[in-house]
From TrEMBL, chain A:
<dbReference type="InterPro" id="IPR009051">
    <property type="entry name" value="Helical_ferredxn"/>
</dbReference>
<dbReference type="InterPro" id="IPR017896">
    <property type="entry name" value="4Fe4S_Fe-S-bd"/>
</dbReference>
<dbReference type="GO" id="GO:0009055">
    <property type="term" value="F:electron transfer activity"/>
</dbReference>
<dbReference type="GO" id="GO:0051539">
    <property type="term" value="F:4 iron, 4 sulfur cluster binding"/>
</dbReference>
<dbReference type="InterPro" id="IPR001041">
    <property type="entry name" value="2Fe-2S_ferredoxin-type"/>
</dbReference>
<comment type="pathway">
    <text>Carbohydrate metabolism; tricarboxylic acid cycle.</text>
</comment>
<dbReference type="GO" id="GO:0022904">
    <property type="term" value="P:respiratory electron transport chain"/>
</dbReference>
<dbReference type="InterPro" id="IPR004489">
    <property type="entry name" value="Succ_DH/fum_Rdtase_Fe-S"/>
</dbReference>
<comment type="similarity">
    <text>Belongs to the succinate dehydrogenase/fumarate reductase iron-sulfur protein family.</text>
</comment>
TrEMBL record, chain B:
<keyword id="KW-1133">Transmembrane helix</keyword>
<dbReference type="InterPro" id="IPR014314">
    <property type="entry name" value="Succ_DH_cytb556"/>
</dbReference>
<keyword id="KW-0479">Metal-binding</keyword>
<keyword id="KW-0349">Heme</keyword>
<dbReference type="Pfam" id="PF01127">
    <property type="entry name" value="Sdh_cyt"/>
</dbReference>
<feature type="transmembrane region" description="Helical">
    <location>
        <begin position="83"/>
        <end position="100"/>
    </location>
</feature>
<dbReference type="InterPro" id="IPR039023">
    <property type="entry name" value="SdhC_prok"/>
</dbReference>
<dbReference type="InterPro" id="IPR000701">
    <property type="entry name" value="SuccDH_FuR_B_TM-su"/>
</dbReference>
<protein>
    <submittedName>
        <fullName>Succinate dehydrogenase subunit C</fullName>
    </submittedName>
</protein>
């Protein structure tokens, strides 16, 4: 019988040194109390390939300039706080790895567009949430379930709107939409996605109300199918598909 | 995004062409001589090249317009939008390959 024996000739495993890189970040800074115009400021940070842009921003804030201002809460792609424009594309800073970017060039980081800039990477999200509230994103049933019973839904009915339940309201889609940039009255993709989530829910009975709200000059018909929202969504929601389904539901008059 | 940008640019360009086109055609009501004089200025090689650009814009706008209709009305349209954009480019290239040599021979043989 033979047992596995450690080959004595094998060299003792040396602790592997993980390679780190100096990455240049150019951040669009704006302090409303001092600056008249936002300005680009560059920072050099030492990063590992597996670090994220959020880690780079933390390093800047903790080690170089404590005044850098940005939102983040969970830091794991669930809360939707840290949507920002990284190298010209809307992404979540906590889901963008350094190794996925070209670090031979500086990385540009700025606030999302189309919403009023408040400070550094923070925008006023009120207009965004105002549109979200307008589509009534909550269950409106017309009947009560039987005493002690739940509202039953088949697997197929649940799957109908599964994609749009994934939204984390980070505003990456709405603030990537060229229609929203020029026309702030437009509901925007995120509000329509959240309306879609209830319009196609078999337990909900207020689809007509929501379709009426979205059948507006500033509603779904503003969508020009540029697909920017679908490309921007960090959750991979087929946003333009959802908007197209709402358009078709309005034309049919029912979900 | 780029399909939309091109669609906008070609759309605005075609609008301005139609504006001028309606004006010069309306000239025939003013006087046939004035109409002939204006149309005569179009028979130059520079205008001939301009016509290539015009046809290019219209062909793209037409094919991409069909793509947008499919995105809106075909249930699988959004899923295949990228593939359809490449089809639009391919159809544009094929159409222009057929049109441009024939047209330029006409323009430069006069």
């Amino acid at each position: 019988m033979s047992t596995a024996v450690l080959d004595e000739a094998a060299p003792a495993p040396t602790p592997e040194v993980i390679e780190s890189f100096t990455v240049t970040l150019i951040v669009r800074r704006y302090n409303p109390e001092v600056d008249e115009q936002p300005k680009w400021v560059d920072y050099d940070v030492e990063m590992f390939a597996t670090d994220r842009i959020l880690d780079a921003l933390h390093k800047i804030k903790w080690e170089q300039d404590g005044s850098l201002t940005f939102r983040r809460s969970c830091a794991h792609g669930i809360c939707g706080s840290d949507a920002m424009r990284i190298n010209g594309r809307n992404r979540l800073a906590c889901k963008t790895l350094i190794k996925d970017l070209d670090i031979s060039k500086p990385i540009y980081v700025e606030a999302i567009k189309g919403l009023p800039l408040e400070k550094d990477l923070i925008v006023d999200m009120d207009p965004f949430f105002e549109s979200f509230r307008e589509v009534q994103p909550f269950l409106i049933p017309s009947s009560k379930p039987g005493a002690g019973k739940e509202r039953i839904q088949s697997v197929a009915d649940r799957a109908r709107f599964d994609d749009t339940t994934k939204c984390i309201l980070c505003a990456a889609c709405t603030s990537s939409c060229p229609i929203f940039w020029t026309d702030g009255q437009y509901f925007g993709p995120a509000a329509i996605v959240n309306a879609h989530r209830f319009i196609f829910d078999s337990r909900d009975d207020a689809a007509k109300v929501r379709l009426d709200i979205l059948n507006d000059k500033e509603g779904v018909w503003r969508c020009r199918t540029t697909f920017n929202c679908t490309d921007a969504c960090p959750r991979g929601i087929q946003v333009t598909q959802a908007i197209a389904e709402v358009k078709q539901a309005i034309m049919r008059g029912k979900p | 995004m780029w399909s939309w940008v091109l669609h906008r640019i070609t759309g605005v360009a075609i609008f301005f062409f139609l504006l001028v086109h309606i004006l010069d055609t309306a000239l025939v009501r003013v006087s046939p001589e004035a109409y002939n004089a204006v149309i005569g200025t179009y028979q130059t090689p520079i205008m001939g090249l301009g016509e290539v650009a015009l046809v290019g814009a219209i062909v793209f706008h037409a094919f991409n317009g069909l793509r947008i209709i499919l995105i809106d009305f075909w249930s699988k349209g959004t899923r295949y939008q990228k593939a359809m954009f490449y089809v639009v480019i391919a159809l544009w290239v094929i159409t222009m390959l057929g049109f441009t040599p024939r047209h330029l021979i006409n323009v430069f043989s006069h």
